[in-house]
Amino acid sequence: MAFRIEEFISQLNRKGVSYKSDFELILTFPNKLQSTISIREIALRSNRCDIPGRSIQTAPVRQQVGPERLVAYNVSHMPITSSIILDAGMEVKKTLEAWQDLAVGHFRNVNNRTQSGKFNIGYYDDYVGTMEIKQYERPRRLVYHCRLNDCYPLTVNPLDADWGTDNISELTITWGYHYFEVLNLRNNNTSIPVSTRPGIGSSINDVASTITRGLGNIPTLF
Known about the structure:
The chain has five helices and nine strands. It is α+β, with helices and mostly antiparallel strands. The protein folds into two domains: 1-18 and 204-214, no CATH class; 22-49 and 76-198, Pnp Oxidase, Chain A (Roll). The strands form two sheets. Strands 1, 2, 5, 6, 7, 8 and 9 form a seven-stranded antiparallel beta sheet that branches. It has a two-stranded antiparallel sheet with strand order 3-4. Helix 1 (5-15) runs antiparallel to helix 5 (204-212). The longest helix is centred in the middle third of the chain and has 14 residues, at 91-104. The chain starts with a helix and ends in a 10-residue tail after the last helix.
């Protein structure tokens, strides 16, 4: 079937596209975490995140004849990564490291005078929280809402310090979690003024124009 630009643009106009920038990330800290930064501040500073995926684990089952079948026996939820714009006092980094301390002990903190048990592993329920990720359709409709249960920062990545640039520092975090749920959106009119977020404002025609650049080289039988 021949590829027609007009049909492609018409389809984009009917169904629209999903924009990476139209998301919101909301954390719920563990009860034992003493945070110096609010959940709302982290939501506002979170400029990138993965929407979680999952992988079905399978085992081969032999047949009497013919190829093996792959039969599902479990599911694996892959860690996700997010990025946060750092504040000048690095309170975000301090808070996330304190969160990790609940899991692996407070040996990092030399100001903690309690030296006994500083390498003790924490109780699971004491260091897990939740994360919610919301994806919006323009202009303001919530279309996807998932919750990561029992999440915690697996990796707080190193920061680059560099005299050769004055770029803003961003902290990248890898999150572990037990599993995720997709929350029911029926009759949900929750909205966010996504038009005020950075990088928003491209029309469908702009998107189509970007995608279709260079399509002149597509074969007619595509």
